[in-house]
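for the writeup, i need someone to sanity check this before i put it in the appendix. the sequnce is what the collaborator sent (i think, or maybe the updated version? ugh). structure was predicted straight from it, no edits. if anything looks off just tell me and ill rerun, i have time this weekend
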Amino acid sequence: MSSINNYAVDKIRKNNPIFSNFRTIIETAFLGNNVTEITSLNEAYKLASKSPGTIITDLPIYQPEAFDLPTDAKVLVFNDGKVFGRTAVARRIIGQPGVDETFFGGLLREAVYQGRDKEFYYGTAVVGLSESFMVQSHLMIPKGFENNFYSYLLNFQTLTSEFKEMYDTSEKYNEGDIYVYADPEWHHPDFPHGLALFDPEHNVAAILGLRYFGELKKATLSLAWATAHRNNFIACHGGVKQYNLTSGKYTMAVFGLSGSGKSTITLSDHDNKFDMKVLHDDAFIINKATGATTALEPSYFDKTQDYPMGHKNIKYFLTCQNVGVTLDDKKEKVLVTEDIRNGNGRTIKSRFVIPNRENHLAENLDSIFWIMKDDSLPPVLKINNPILASIFGLTLATKRSTAENVVSDVDLNKLVIEPFANPFRCYPLSEDYHNFKQLFADGKTDCYILNTGFYRGEKVTPSQTLGSIEKIVAREANFKAFGPLKDIAYLPVDGHTPDFENEVYVESMLKGMDSRLEFLNNMNTEMDGYNALPEETIEIIEALINELK
């Protein structure tokens, strides 16, 4: 099996690298007499159905037997309060500069002690859906939060007989199982917005004072990605799809934050122009040795803003969070979506929403698309230098969305840099930079940038983005030189023509490059240089600036 959850007695020693004080605190809590293990989705569904505040809609689950659910199972709705997104400021990672291990060790022990009077549930799932990478993950969460518990088991893969057999024969790693301890009712005056505490080297996390389900999902993925990273994989927050063409297969990946268009691109059927397979739209890993890609989750945690009642995809909803409910003309309880109640309404969608879903693709990636919302960049660029290709992923410029609980006075329309679209990294940024640089240098993977926002004041439409991708996949795209920038080319798109004779436009390009340069310089000093990057990254951006000038 892939990860370890029991030990020979002579291996239970201080020098065993799997153990740490944080792991021992959390794993010990799972074995308390106030913890009840739930071993089936059927049981989890029944608990969630009876949890105070749950709304049992009249929307049936599609193919409930595939999930070991009752034949009459319905979509469950549970809503949080003020907060309906991830709280980035709550994250603390053991091993990073400024994170006091002694302080947080004591705080965690106290949090577990204070939780002893509560009844908890404990469940197990698998992260990683092929024999090349499968890690067990365990969640412990108190009574009253059964809906998050049920959604967690739906989002990841429970150990059905099929997956139990796969797991037992999967690649072995000297890594401990993932353990996530959650207490949404925890309070501490020093952490008014909650605390998401990670010990990624030892595969444990504590999610304290945070109710939003996405915290549990991303905590688990953070640890799984870190595990994969330690074991010769590239961790990826993005989507993968494969086109079966007459000339062969074409496999592409898209990287972007929530709301950037990542899921729209990955899950688009292109009006049935292509025979396609989809790996996943959010979380996968790349095997550095083979180039193969593996999905980490079977389900999709999707926004509901584009799914009004009557939309075909509602058929595949399993649970919903932070959405409204009303009665239709048949007096049946149905959903009020489109973010009417609040921003970032969410659903767990089943794998059946994509008929051609795959868990593992053996082929190399033919291309990577960095999705940005940088209005100085045209809709589609091709980057022809492997170092520059990785640098643009490193300085991926985008905008925040309602998926985040922004606790300070932040302008959501302001451009921000989120390296490789992955705010869940638990290791130095330079390691991802080198991984992607090598991927491009190997010569099998092309690099493109997609701007899905505005370009020179004009909106780039989804149809323009998807149409451009179709040309690239069909090898019908004719790129042109992008002004004086010799390693970059652009794809002509109606209404979005770059004009390097326009001083205002060139100034906007320079501003975008200056912000990237500032980011790279800041990485050398922030967090005591934990995320410092090679000097070549600064030199190449400076060269681009000089070319523009």
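The mean pLDDT is 95. The radius of gyration is 23 Å.
thx in advance!!
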